[in-house]
Design brief:
- By secondary structure, the chain is mainly β.
- The chain has a single domain, classed as Porin, CATH 2.40.160.40.
- The protein contains no helices and 18 strands.
- It has strands spanning about 25-35, 40, 40-45, 50-60, 65-70, 80, 85-100, 100-110, 115, 125-135, 135-145, 165-175, 180-190, 195-205, 210-220, 230, 235, 240-249.
- The strands form four sheets. The chain has a twelve-stranded antiparallel β-barrel with strand order 1-4-5-7-8-10-11-12-13-14-15-18. A two-stranded antiparallel sheet has the order 2-3.
Length: about 250
């Protein structure tokens, strides 16, 4: 659940979907390895590693489209679909600048291939988002327009359309290829307080010439029983150090 890289994208390198065009041409790509795929502070791989990558097309007008994918280990483990180990994201939008302010409007769909299990809600999720950027700071709001947010229901078993995520991030270039980043976000799952939480992270990155390395510490205040799952139950929203390498081309 994460897109095109550098600049402000490094503030949420393995935590939150970010759209920021990488590369000098209209077509770009990225390939990454991470010790733990986190989405909004929650491990998508049961604290295991992931291989990730995607492609993006950015038109000079500001219109862009792209796709990104990663292995995951929560959809099957939570009983939402069978035969699933993959996330595929499709997104598009418009990005431009107005003076010192950049803005980004778009739509993203998180798709999890596999066979839906009888009686289970769908993990597939669609969000509209709007983002603002100023210097090294960015603010983004994402709003769920599909029936469910990654399979969650209300505490009464209803739909969670209208869930939202607010993300405030910063990424500062120290020079010499070094950078630091910070992020805080709030995930609201509509009608489900135990599933709603705040997450935050701090990171340091280094451009090593053939790619970018980042070390990050992430944590949340998520309810531990709610965010514990898997065949061998794991607490997937606890504090964690994450090491990531990304190559853009």
């Amino acid at each position: 659940m994460h897109k095109m890289l550098p600049a402000l994208a490094l503030a949420g390198l393995v935590t939150v979907p970010v759209v920021a065009v990488a590369g000098d041409g209209p077509l770009s790509g990225n390939l990454g390895l991470t010790s733990n795929y986190l989405f909004r502070g929650v491990s998508q791989t049961q604290d295991g590693p992931a291989i990730q990558g995607g492609f993006d097309y950015a038109h000079p007008s500001g219109v862009y489209i792209g796709t990104w994918g990663s292995n995951v280990a929560w959809v099957k483990e939570t009983g939402l679909k069978d035969n699933n180990s993959l996330e595929i994201d499709l997104y598009g939008g418009y990005k431009a600048e107005a003076g010192p302010i950049s803005y980004d409007l778009g739509l993203i769909h998180y798709h999890y291939p596999g066979d839906k299990l009888t009686g289970a809600t769908t993990p597939n999720t669609t969000e509209l988002y709007v983002g603002l950027g100023w210097r090294f700071l960015s603010l983004k709001y994402s709003h769920v327009v599909s029936d469910y947010f990654v399979g969650w229901t209300t505490t009464g078993g209803g739909k969670t359309r209208g869930s939202y995520y607010v993300d405030l991030s910063g990424a500062y270039d120290l020079g010499g290829g070094w950078g630091v980043s910070a992020h805080v976000g709030y995930q609201d799952v509509k009608g489900n307080d135990p599933a709603s939480y705040t997450d935050w992270n701090l990171g340091v990155s280094k451009d090593v010439g053939f790619g970018t390395l980042k070390l990050m510490y992430s944590d949340t205040d998520a309810d531990t029983p709610t965010y514990t799952w898997g065949t061998t139950p794991k607490k997937v929203a606890n504090g964690a150090f994450v090491l990531t390498f990304v190559k853009t081309f």
